[in-house]
UniProtKB/TrEMBL annotation:
GO terms of molecular function: DNA-binding transcription factor activity
Annotated protein name in UniProt: Transcriptional regulator, ArsR family
Organism of derivation: Methanosarcina barkeri 3
Entries under Gene3D superfamilies matching the protein: Winged helix-like DNA-binding domain superfamily/Winged helix DNA-binding domain
HTH arsR-type domain residues: 1-91
SMART domains in UniProt: HTH_ARSR
Domain of life the protein comes from: Archaea
């Protein structure tokens, strides 16, 4: 994301632009439809879209003479990652991720079959995954051992609906 902090903070400092992002989270929209939904004129919507484009939070997709605006979710997520809590800790070689995690958070685990799953971190229940140095591991938290310095990203998955299918049965 090359939008720069100044562009980014300008982009999210407006309730109208936040509303545009919220509406675009439902899917790509034509600028006139977006303006109508939000209750602003097309020229005003276009100015707000330009600011969001400069911050690289939205992109314009051209289909002939039609321009559709879409949200760049990866850039929104990258922006939010800057605000993740960072904790430093030192452990012995061979320490498991679960042992390390317990040093910085209240962790609740459940054994499911032969695997240990973290079901709560600091009281927040949910489904958790992790990456070590930007890569997913096929090991559970009690199996993964540290043998060198690493950066772990501990992530709680939250329900995000990419597509919702409303299925009706013909009668």
């Amino acid at each position: 994301m090359n939008g720069g902090r100044e562009n980014l903070f300008k982009a999210i400092s407006s309730d109208t632009r936040l509303s545009i992002l919220e509406h675009l989270s439902e899917g790509d929209k034509h600028i006139s439809g977006l303006a109508r939904e939000i209750g602003i004129s097309v020229p005003v919507a276009a100015r707000h879209i330009k600011i969001l484009e400069k911050a690289e939070l939205v992109e314009r997709k051209k289909f002939g003479n039609t321009h559709m605006i879409g949200i760049k979710l990866n850039n929104v997520y990258s922006f939010l990652d800057h605000f993740a809590e960072n904790r430093r800790l030192e452990v012995e070689q061979g320490t498991t991720l679960l042992e390390a995690l317990k040093n910085v958070a209240a962790v609740e685990v459940k054994k499911m079959g032969n695997r240990v799953k973290v079901v709560s971190t600091d009281g927040e229940e949910g489904f958790y995954i992790y990456e070590v140095d930007g890569k997913f591991s096929d090991k559970t938290v009690d199996e993964y051992e540290f043998h060198e310095d690493a950066v772990v990203e501990w992530k709680k998955l939250v329900p995000i609906t990419k597509k919702r299918l409303l299925v009706s049965i013909r009668r």
